[in-house]
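#struct-help
A.M.: can someone run this one for me? Single chain, 160 residues.
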Amino acid sequence: MVKHVVGVADSKVSSDCGDVIVTQALGSCLGITIYDPVAHVGGMLHVMMPVSSINRDEARLNPLMFVDTGVPVFFWDIYSAGGVKNRLIVKVAGGATIQHNGQDNFAIGKRNMVMLRKLLWKNGVLIEAEDVGADYARSMRLHIATGRVVISTNGCEKEL
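D.P.: on it. Structure tokens below:
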């Protein structure tokens, strides 16, 4: 088994059945997995902000930082690796409410999910499973051999 770690504003795609792709500390960020069960191609994206319009220069340097620019790049990477749109399984975790002094003034987690839902809906893609919201961080693992996605929170694990 080879473990690939996805950092913030980063993604990994694999077709090697021995690979596991992981990301950690999903607070308001979203971890998005895509898996094609026929081609055994999958990947994970760790995106942090909803829209690239807040910093166009940063979006040009790293489109994976933003939902609106990162998700399309990520889907094209999956297609390039052999994934087929009508077979793709999408799962999402994160989007937590991160409060400072009891307030969530920017609602980044909620806004990330709204932007993702709009983008996927516009392109005819549905989310099969999600673990989003609340006020705690999550870690996420994708097993390429099976497409299994495991979420870890406060020492507990569950499958999405």
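A.M.: thanks! The radius of gyration is 15 Å.
D.P.: also worth noting: Residues 2-159 form a domain with the 60s Ribosomal Protein L30; Chain: A; fold (CATH 3.30.1330.200).
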